[in-house]
Write a structure and sequence with these properties.
Number of helices: 10
Shape: elongated
Helix content: 40-55%
Structural class: alpha/beta
Distance between the termini: 42 Å
Radius of gyration: 21 Å
Largest sheet: 6 strands, parallel
Length: 299
C-alpha cells in the first residue's frame, strides 16, 4: 500500500512539474517580441539523427578540421564513412518540434532560430528564419576556391567512381558499422582503403562538407549574425543542447545579460554547461518533442 502511495505521489509531482514547465515556457513566449530559439542535436534525435552527448551515448572523438585538411587518408576515411551514413540524414523527416517551431514563426511568435544542427530539418519543416551556425551537411564547399556544390551531386559521383563499394548491398549495421552523429558511420579500416573521392570540379581543390568540424571556427558572417540576434533578443528558449561548445554557450550568456533570466529557459534531457546560470524552474529536464509542440499549441 505504501509503495502504491509513493508511486502515485511521485507521478502527481512529475505531472505538476510538467504543468509548471509548460506554463513557464508559454509565458515566456507570450511576453516576447523578439524570441530567439537556440537548438541542438537533441531536437533532431526523434527524427533518427544521432547526437553526441545524450545520457547513455558512448564517448565520441570526432575528426577535427586540422586532421581532415592535413592528410588525404583522413579525407578518404571521412568520405567513405559519410557516403554510407549520409542517407540517414538525407532521409530524416522533421519531427514535432521542428514543425511546432516553423508554425510558431509563421504565426509571429518566434523571431529567429539559431541552430547548431547541420541536418536542415528546421528548413524542411518550413522555417525560413534559420541561422545554421555550424553549417549545412547538404552542401559541399571547396577549401581552395570556395565553390559550393549540392551534396546529392557528390553522392552520385561517389557512387559512380566506387562501383564496388558496398553502398547498395549492405546496411551499415551489416558491415559491423554504427551510425554516429552528422551522418558519420564507423567502419573498419579495410572497408575504405581503396575508396575514391574527387577534388573540386572547378580547381581540383579539397572538397569538405560545409559544416564546422571540431577545431574549426564559425564562418564570420554566421558568428556576427548570431551575436547580434542574441543581443537584440528579449527572450530565449534553448532546446536539446548541452551548450558545451563556446559558440553556443556565449549566446545564452548574451541573452541573459540583455533579456534577463526571467525570460530565458533551457530544455534538455541531461545536464548542461549553463545549469548553474538558471533557476531550477527555468532548467527543464525533458524531451523537446514532448513539451515544445504543447508550448505553441493554440497560441
Amino acid at each position: 500500500f505504501f509503495h502504491f502511495v509513493a508511486v502515485v505521489s511521485g507521478a502527481m509531482a512529475a505531472a505538476a512539474d510538467a504543468s509548471a514547465s509548460l506554463a513557464l515556457l508559454r509565458a515566456i513566449v507570450q511576453r516576447a517580441n523578439r524570441l530567439v530559439v537556440v537548438t541542438g542535436a537533441g531536437v533532431s534525435t526523434c527524427s533518427g539523427v544521432p547526437d553526441y552527448r545524450s545520457p547513455g551515448r558512448p564517448p565520441h572523438k570526432p575528426l577535427t578540421h586540422q586532421e581532415f585538411m592535413k592528410h588525404k587518408s583522413n579525407q578518404r576515411r571521412y568520405w567513405a564513412r559519410s557516403f554510407l551514413g549520409y542517407k540517414t540524414v538525407a532521409n530524416a523527416q522533421p519531427n514535432a518540434t521542428h514543425i511546432a517551431l516553423a508554425q510558431a514563426e509563421l504565426k509571429g511568435h518566434l523571431h529567429h532560430i539559431i541552430t547548431q544542427n547541420v541536418d536542415g530539418l528546421h528548413q524542411r519543416a518550413g522555417a525560413t528564419k534559420v541561422l545554421p551556425i555550424h553549417g549545412d551537411i547538404n552542401v559541399v564547399r571547396c577549401m581552395d576556391c570556395d565553390t559550393t556544390l549540392p551534396r546529392p551531386w557528390l553522392q552520385d559521383l561517389l557512387k559512380e567512381i566506387n562501383p564496388d563499394f558496398p553502398h547498395a548491398f549492405f546496411e551499415p549495421n551489416e558491415l559491423g558499422a554504427s551510425m554516429r552523429p552528422d551522418g558519420d558511420v564507423m567502419l573498419p579500416d579495410h572497408v575504405y582503403q581503396h575508396f575514391h573521392f574527387p577534388g573540386c570540379p572547378r580547381c581540383e581543390g579539397v572538397l569538405k562538407p560545409d559544416v564546422v568540424f571540431f577545431g574549426d571556427s564559425l564562418r564570420p558572417e554566421h558568428a556576427m549574425e548570431s551575436l547580434e540576434l542574441c543581443r537584440e533578443a528579449d527572450a530565449m528558449i534553448v532546446l536539446g543542447t548541452t551548450l558545451t561548445v563556446h559558440s553556443a554557450f556565449r549566446l545564452l550568456k548574451l541573452a541573459l545579460a540583455g533579456a534577463g533570466v526571467e525570460n530565458i529557459a533551457l530544455v534538455n534531457r541531461g545536464p548542461t554547461r549553463a545549469d548553474s546560470l538558471l533557476p531550477d524552474t527555468h532548467r527543464i529536464f525533458a524531451n523537446c518533442s514532448e513539451i515544445i509542440p504543447r508550448v505553441f499549441a493554440d497560441l
